[in-house]
Design a protein that fits this description.
Blueprint lengths: L9 H24 L10 H26 L10 H15 L2 H18 L5 H18 L8 H15 L5 H22 L1 H6 L4 H18 L46 E8 L2 H14 E9 L2 E8 L2 H11 L1 E9 L1 H4 L9 E7 L2 H9 L3 E4 L8 H11 L3 E5 L6 H12 L4 E4 L5 H9 L7 H13 L2 E7 L4 E3 L2 E3 L4 E5 L2 E6 L2 H13 L5 E6 L5 H14 L4 E6 L7 E5 L1
Parallel strand pairs: 5-6, 5-7, 7-8, 14-15
Antiparallel strand pairs: 1-3, 1-4, 2-3, 9-12, 9-16, 10-11, 12-13, 14-16
């Protein structure tokens, strides 16, 4: 191990991440085993490990990049600011679960202070800023959790004094956190009943123990905690010495098996802060355990909901969600599963040939004629025609979302279970249909289809009807417009050239599968040309070509 640092520099950041990852690796199973709040799904230790693993990988990337530029014997290594920011960014994009998302915000809060200096005073202030930032990121903070432990660590670090050493601040923070951790069963009734400490708080104590080892060269003495006898909790309430929760519904404890929202939804989101403020309000109304962390245009969103599609749709409306992960809590809660009921998919398609393809896959289709939108009555008829007790409805057009919702509400009165997956383009509908599996539960099927649609970026080529100002500049009548996710991104002179530019832009962000839907009047050679173009520039990307788009739309593109 390197010599203990006098200041918290880039090497200290690297060492801390490595030691924290090693410690969480050793304690992962034990932390998973005491995970009872907010959901007893036994994955807190694993989620924290994966979050720190992503943080460490980002720091290693900074060191590798610096070595390529300055690998001489006198190299001082990368700047501390670069290392702490990489740590925070890596944790943000790799955060898993409720506790991992909160840890990412703690690291981000620390980084914003440590980027300006690494002495004892900066470390103490970094811990304080981290605790405040994490608490603000949680929609309804609850005492007796990792938030309480983080606050205690920050107070103890501050009490150590600005004139003290890094070692004194780190030791004080760890001791304060460990003491607060021991008190969590008394502050959160569900922990007291289970006879365990908070799993997220235990993980934070482990990470702070790695911080002590980083700045002192010695790991703090770890005394395995014996599980206490469960606290006596009077019927209908918390023990007299329990801390107050911010949400009255949470005073009685965590989520019991079979209770609470069915899904955990996590995604990265590119969005402006004003849009994220509105997103928080919407997601808060949909579910619980809401944590939104990040900033500067990139956020990590975590929420527990019953309607996973609505949570993803809210992200789409706020900005650009990606890396969408949806987890069903059914297995963790051991909830009984009913036998799958007969199920069908109803989707809106733009052309006859694509209609035939989807019907061959077992779907019921509604044809969207050029210049016309299907009415809610057409969608109702299609759902009833499906003759199924469960139906997944794919509108494949953002403007049809309300129409689909009205239709779904109407057929629910007939006893049909309907879920609307908010697909905005037919290529998203194709992606959703491709993963449809009637043999699994309805909720799991909807989650898989929603995730597949959300992971598919879409574009279309259109012909400009007149001179106009667009987000890509001024276009003239007859120009070919390339719209990506609904916005004009490219103005070109011909379809093949514009399509190639659009594909380049979409694939620059990554992708594994390109779907091309040729318009009614597009030549067959267009698909062959673009398929060859993708293959030449992106060897690992597959391309699928369909025919069946609108007469006025030369090409639709999807990238998964």
């Amino acid at each position: 191990m390197p010599q203990p640092p006098d200041v918290f520099d880039a090497v200290a950041v690297r060492t801390w991440c490595s030691l924290a990852l090693e410690a969480l690796g050793r304690e992962r199973a034990a932390i998973d085993a005491i995970n009872v709040y907010p959901v007893p799904d036994g994955d807190t230790g694993t989620n924290l490990f994966l979050t720190v693993e992503s943080a460490r990988a980002a720091v290693e990337t900074v060191f590798a990049a610096h070595a390529r530029v300055d690998a001489g014997p006198g190299s001082a290594g990368p700047a501390a600011a670069d290392a702490v920011r990489a740590m925070a960014h890596g944790a943000l994009i790799g955060a898993r679960g409720n506790s991992g998302t909160i840890l990412a915000q703690l690291l981000r809060g620390m980084a914003s202070v440590l980027a300006d200096g690494g002495d004892a005073d900066h470390l103490a202030r970094a811990l304080d800023h981290a605790a405040t930032a994490a608490r603000r990121a949680v929609a309804h903070p609850v005492e007796g959790t990792v938030l309480t432990v983080a606050t205690a660590a920050a107070r103890a670090a501050g009490a150590a004094g600005a004139a003290s050493s890094l070692a004194a601040v780190a030791r004080a923070a760890h001791a304060g956190a460990a003491e607060a951790l021991e008190e969590t069963p008394a502050r959160l009734p569900v922990l007291g009943r289970a006879g365990v400490v908070d799993a997220g708080g235990q993980g934070l104590v482990t990470v702070l123990g790695a911080l002590v080892e980083t700045v002192t060269g010695q790991a703090p003495v770890h005394v395995p905690r014996q599980a206490p006898e469960p606290l006596a909790v009077p019927d209908g309430g918390a023990p007299a010495h329990a801390g107050e929760c911010c949400d009255p519904d949470e005073r009685g404890g965590g989520t019991a098996p079979g209770d609470g929202p069915a899904f955990e939804v996590i995604y990265l989101l590119e969005a402006e802060e004003a849009a994220v403020d509105l997103l928080r309000e919407r997601l808060d109304a949909l579910g619980d355990s809401l944590v939104v962390v990040g900033g500067d245009g990139l956020w990590n969103v975590h929420v527990h909901v019953d309607d996973a599609g609505a949570a993803v749709e809210a992200g789409v409306e706020a900005g650009r969600p990606h890396r969408i992960r949806v987890t069903h809590f059914g297995a963790a809660r051991a909830a009984p599963r009913a036998e799958p009921a007969p199920r069908s998919v109803v989707l809106v398609v733009p052309g006859e040939e694509l209609r035939g393809l989807c019907e061959e896959a077992g779907a019921v289709t509604v044809l969207a004629r050029p210049g016309e939108q299907p009415a809610s009555g057409e969608l109702v008829d299609a759902v009833r025609r499906a003759n199924a007790r469960e139906v997944v409805l794919l509108p494949n057009d953002a403007t049809l979302r309300h129409v689909a919702a009205v239709a779904a509400e109407q057929v629910r009165a007939d006893g049909i279970r309907v879920a609307v997956v908010p697909t905005r383009a037919v290529v998203q509908g194709i992606a959703a249909l491709a993963v449809h599996e009637p043999g699994r539960s309805f909720d799991e099927d909807v989650v898989a289809m929603t995730a597949a649609a959300g992971a598919t970026r879409y574009a279309e080529l259109a012909v400009a009807e007149r001179q106009s100002w667009t987000t890509a500049g001024i276009c003239q009548a007859g120009d070919i417009l390339g719209l990506i996710d609904g916005d004009v991104a490219v103005i070109g002179a011909d379809v093949p050239g514009t399509a190639r530019t659009v594909l380049d832009r979409m694939l620059a962000a990554g992708g594994e599968l390109v779907t091309l839907v040729l318009g009614e009047h597009a030549p067959d050679t267009l698909g062959d040309t673009l398929e060859a173009y993708v293959r030449e520039g992106h060897l690992a990307v597959d391309t699928t070509v369909y025919r069946g788009g609108h007469p006025g739309t030369p090409l639709l593109i999807g990238v998964e």
